[in-house]
Amino acid sequence: MAGMTVAPRRWAGRLAAAAGLLVTVVALLIAPATSASAHAVLQSSSPAASSIVPSGPSEVVLTFSESVRKVPGKIRVIAPDGSRADRGEPSFSGGVVTIPVDPGGARGTYLVSFRVISADSHPVSGAFTYSVGAASTPPVDSGTDSRANPVVGTAVKVARFLGYAGLVLLVGPALVLAALWPRRLSRRGPTRLAWTGLGLVAVATLADLWLQVPYTAGGGLFDVTGEGFGSVFGSAFGAAHLVRLGLLAASVFLLRPLLARPAGRADAIILAVLGGAALLTWPLAGHPAASPAPAVSVVVDAVHLGSMAVWLGGLLMLAVFLLRQADERELGAILPIWSRWAALAVSALLLAGTVQALIEVATPRALIDTTYGRLLLAKIGLFAIVIAVAAYSRHLVRSRVAAQRPVPVRRAVLVELAVTVVVLAVSATLVQTTPARTAVAGPSAGSESGFFSTRLSSPLLAVEVEVSPAERGNNSVHLYAYDKNNQPLLVAEWKATVALPSAGIEPIEVPLLRLTDSHAYGDISMPTAGEWQLKITARTTDIDQATVTATVPIR
């Protein structure tokens, strides 16, 4: 009777797994194709930025370096009197966006503001002006702030980290219970850990889908709309996350028997296939899918993530369970096998990381000159520490000391775990950072990836400052004002100056253009390297104003 009840369960699990694979294939087939680069840049426009045309055009054409997608309601053309000059919805064709406008508009200066989504699911925004007949005072865009609330940006990184942590908690127990767990020990603790990990991955995936709406469209955590969700679900990002949820649901049917007792070979193979397919959804929703070599980048990133999950998950099982509960005989059998697994995982990590670095960094200079490169160097440094500790642990295992004295090994494993958790946090930040190959190619005013960024606070308001590229020559300055509740704040007047006292350069006024009620933009030339003083004054009412100062390092 027992065999008769187990067989249907196994068949049900295999059918569910097959259904999950079918969902994966279908979703990948219908997902929009991604372009071969990340973070699109506005290359040209018609009319050209800052140009004066004799008569009003019937359309404004934006040409980006890569294919872009629409963010609902975030492309606007503002007439000199502050009214909307665009008519109807813009059309998208690869990297070309066409905005129909009223050709009989008034003379004066028009403001074009845009926010689109690049191939790697990150938003790109910017603005420029053109004039009909003659220039006039630029209008102000009275629409909502075109940038996501800083809380949303932080929440996105937290969700990514929770997803990685959940993957570790799921993979480690599942792998050890399937192949290394002594039969006499209770499986309750590792089983709870695995279900917690699966729950974290599911919650993080749902959070990613929710946060992508305000992240791409701009706004706070709850500024979501049905149209926004439709745009996210219709993208490669949304398809990858929906596939992940389907694969997680399918894997539940195979995980339950595996966690309760050693699984059959067929079930283990199907579960491994499901796991490999799920790993692919992370790179398919990020930078790798939009790299110069997307097929290579996606596979390499999946190998990198899977190897990290195996290594860190196995270390967690050793530290929390095996080194505490297993006896000397059991450890003598388990540790050599785990040592070989760890060496294989580390080798895969190093190989995959090297290939990733060659693709995403491109030049040695980018390691120093970009945020992505510096984060990558920090990750490499931390990883070197982990490798050194792992080598010490492997020495103990090879000398057969570990099974007799597990305490030193356990301490080393705890150190590995602590440092690797920091590595995961750095990885969660890396996936939200502009790849170095894109940053060194030359940022534009329309890019959100400033080389210098800081937040300045005063009793009245907070000002977020972005300066790019923070190098000698022309630089773009973006200023965003927030109130004490971290909400966009109306600024009646902006003033800003830059100075370099060490070189005797007196304050130079930065000409600022108000893009929205809380956002101003300007261009300024800083011809000399050094620590420039950026002084900003924001007036919110006739009597209330605040002045803040930032030190901007110019290379």
Features:
21% strand; five-stranded antiparallel beta sheet; single chain; five-stranded mixed beta sheet; alpha+beta; 555 residues
Structural features, described:
- This protein is of the alpha+beta class.
- It is built from twelve helices and 18 strands.
- Strands 2, 4, 5, 8 and 9 form a five-stranded mixed sheet that branches. The chain has a five-stranded antiparallel sheet with strand order 10-11-12-16-15, with no helix packed on it. Strands 1-3-7-6 form a four-stranded antiparallel sheet, with no helix packed on it.
- A hairpin with a 2-residue loop joins strand 15 and strand 16.
- Helix 1 packs parallel to helix 6 and helix 8 packs antiparallel against helix 10.
- It is elongated and about 85 Å long.
- 47% of the residues are buried.
- The N terminus is likely disordered.
Radius of gyration (CA) equals: 27 Å
Q: Name the shape in a single word.
A: elongated
On the 0 to 100 scale, the average pLDDT is 77
Most strands sheet: 5 strands, mixed
End-to-end distance, in Å?
Answer: 76 Å
Unreliable residue stretches: 1-9, 11-38, 441-450
Strand content: 15-25%
Oligomer: single chain
Based on secondary structure, the structural category is: alpha+beta
How many helix segments? 12
User: Could you spell the SSE succession in H and E letters?
Assistant: HEEEEEEEEEHHHHHHHHHHHEEEEEEEEE
* Range of helix content: 40-55%
**How many β-strand stretches?**
18
